[in-house]
Every structure is written in C-alpha cells, then in structure tokens.
Amino acid sequence: xxxxxxxxxxxxxxxxxxxxxxxxxxMTYGDVAEWLGEGGPRQVGRVMALYGGAVPxxxxxxxxxxxxxxxELRALAHYREEGTPLREAGRAAEGHVPRxxxxxxxxxxxxxxxxxxxx
Length: 119
Prior knowledge:
By secondary structure, the chain is mainly alpha-helical.
C-alpha cells in the first residue's frame, strides 16, 4: 500500500482489535467479528491476509487452534516467546506442530491490555 491508499474502515477496526490482544492471548477470526459487531470470520481473515503484517497477526487465529498454514514456525516462535498456552501435537499430527490451547489462550476482549495468560 502506498501513502495515498486509504485503509478501508473495516480493516482499520479489525487491525485495532488485533493490536489490543495481549501477548500470550488470542482471539479467533469469529471473536474479532463478534467483538466488532460486524462482518464474520471470513471477512476478518481476509483483512488479516491483506493487511495484518503490521500487527501481531499470530494473535488472530482459527477456532480449532491449528496454526496458520504456511506460517506455523513463525507463529510458534511468537507463541513460545509470549508464553501462549499450547497443546503438544500427537505423533499422528502432520509435522508434529502443536496447536493452541484455546480454552486457556482465548481472550474475550475485556479487561486491561496487560492481562497475562491463564496457565
């Protein structure tokens, strides 16, 4: 995007939510849409795919806790650095890449931004 390109208003709102998610916590694409009261998981995913590189993209995730295909190792490094709760992968899991422990990692959008992960 050049300086002359204006970010769509919905995209700005999605990216603002992504920036508010505390380290070590995540929101699903659907959570973000619900929090905004607009759009749905696909719209949020599209915004993240097009514009999410400038925000902590690894904190907006799939509801099943599977790491973003093609970005698993980069995301995993962020999760480990931030202390995001993970579920170790079983031996049958492709690539033995862990999943997010969604019950413990999910953030509801409430409370101070400095909330620490529940472990």
